[in-house]
């Protein structure tokens, strides 16, 4: 059995971490005696430079035909002067929309060896393990109209959802909760927003299909506090696009480094999109300093959710756990004065370990 995986390196450290992830994916393929088809596509600033578009049609075709897509990161100062629809980030929004990957899963967990990397007290963050499910293709970021009005003196953005759009992402969250600790927190702003009142109604409807899942509703401003004050009590959190964007960056602080945070974006059918949460990190690009582990953990999610190879997912997660426990640190994880290793070094260690495990 071969697998078709589209690799979109993008810009900056996106290129460095995906190059290492390709080696990791090949370790998994080789362990099964298979050769997988890994094909690179252009996205972001490098696509702009090469073709004039941040998301060439060919890239969309490549991704649609793949079993899964791995994306690095896009953007950088070189393209910051461009208008919104011409920027590298337009490629990112474009590919998420083109693949209709409406459920963005962001696991937030702490690593026993990294508790001190978090600015929060170790006893507060020890054992944190929850998933944020962010709606990704609707809500405030996509609703129309979205425009400047009255010659620029007024402006409108629109939070638009259909019940069907809410229901499908809420179902993903219930399914996850069912397979975990059976607790779901739905986050909204139902005291103010009509869209949130409907969101809550849909959550309650879907809840009747999942009697084993305990549902809690939190207003988003309160949720922002609770995530920091009682992070251990969450299991699965589901929320609107912008709320999820903000809360997941906030939650990232619990884990210590953005270099450890993976994500998976899933749709109904078609390939899942897997990417580290971090950006292209122009400040360290080209120096071999990037932490590839967020991308490796994204590959683990790909193995689990798109390629149906849970044992490969477990092996990668255990290998990452292993290097952290052995005290291996990339620069983002090292405390000041502490020794650190380079991107390729930690990558080689994880690849070796995964090879042994599979
Ligand atoms: P960033 O995530 O690229 O970097 C923030 C800080 O974290 C920097 O100090 C960086 O060195 C560090 N960092 C990030 N990932 C790291 C890793 N794997 N290993 C070690 N250190 C890491 O966010 P920033 O600086 O706000 O944005 C830089 C560019 O990336 C911008 O053009 C932005 O638009 C773009 N961006 C792209 C995203 C994507 O492609 N998904 C997401 C966020 C930003
Ligand atoms: Mg964000």
TrEMBL record:
GO terms for biological process, alphabetical: L-leucine biosynthetic process
Q: EC number(s) of the enzyme?
A: 1.1.1.85
Where found in the cell?
Answer: Cytoplasm
Which UniProt keywords are given for this protein, alphabetically ordered?
Amino-acid biosynthesis, Branched-chain amino acid biosynthesis, Cytoplasm, Leucine biosynthesis, Magnesium, Manganese, Metal-binding, NAD, Oxidoreductase
Pfam families attached to this UniProt entry? Iso_dh
Q: What is its main location?
A: cytoplasm
Binding residues annotated for substrate, in chain numbering: 96, 106, 134, 221
> Which PROSITE patterns does the record associate with it?
IDH_IMDH
Q: What does this protein do?
A: Catalyzes the oxidation of 3-carboxy-2-hydroxy-4-methylpentanoate (3-isopropylmalate) to 3-carboxy-4-methyl-2-oxopentanoate. The product decarboxylates to 4-methyl-2 oxopentanoate.
Under what name is this protein listed?
A: 3-isopropylmalate dehydrogenase
Q: Which gene encodes it?
A: leuB
């Amino acid at each position: 059995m071969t697998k078709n995986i589209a690799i979109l390196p993008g810009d900056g450290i996106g290129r460095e971490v995906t190059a290492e992830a390709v080696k990791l994916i090949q370790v998994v393929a080789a362990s099964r005696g298979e050769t997988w088809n890994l094909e690179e596509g252009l996205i972001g600033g490098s696509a702009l430079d090469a073709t004039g578009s941040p998301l060439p049609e060919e890239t969309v075709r490549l991704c649609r035909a793949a079993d899964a897509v791995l994306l690095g990161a896009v953007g950088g100062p070189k393209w910051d002067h461009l208008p919104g629809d011409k920027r590298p980030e337009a490629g990112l929004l474009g590919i998420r929309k083109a693949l209709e990957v409406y459920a963005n899963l962001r696991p937030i967990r702490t690593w026993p060896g990294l508790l001190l990397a978090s600015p929060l007290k170790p006893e507060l963050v020890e054992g944190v393990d929850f998933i944020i499910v962010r709606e990704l293709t609707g809500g405030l970021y996509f609703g129309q109209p979205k425009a400047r009005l009255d010659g620029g003196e007024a402006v409108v953005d629109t939070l638009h959802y259909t019940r069907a759009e809410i229901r499908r992402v809420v179902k993903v969250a219930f399914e996850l909760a069912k397979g975990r600790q059976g607790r779901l927190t739905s986050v909204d702003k139902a005291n103010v927003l009509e869209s949130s009142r409907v969101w809550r109604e849909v959550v309650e409807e879907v809840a009747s299909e999942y009697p084993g899942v305990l549902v809690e509703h939190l207003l988003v401003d309160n949720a922002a506090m609770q995530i920091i004050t009682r992070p251990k009590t969450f299991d699965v959190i589901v929320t609107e696009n912008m709320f999820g964007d903000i809360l997941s960056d906030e939650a990232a602080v619990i884990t210590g480094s953005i270099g450890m945070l993976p994500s998976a974006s899933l749709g109904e059918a078609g390939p899942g999109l897997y990417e580290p949460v971090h950006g292209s990190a122009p400040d360290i690009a080209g120096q071999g300093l990037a932490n590839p582990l967020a991308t490796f953990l994204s590959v683990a999610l790909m193995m689990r959710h798109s390629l149906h190879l849970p044992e490969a997912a477990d092996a990668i997660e255990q290998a990452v756990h292993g290097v952290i426990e052995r005290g291996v640190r990339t620069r983002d994880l090292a405390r000041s004065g502490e020794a650190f290793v380079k991107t390729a070094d930690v990558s080689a260690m994880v690849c070796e370990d995964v090879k042994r495990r599979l």
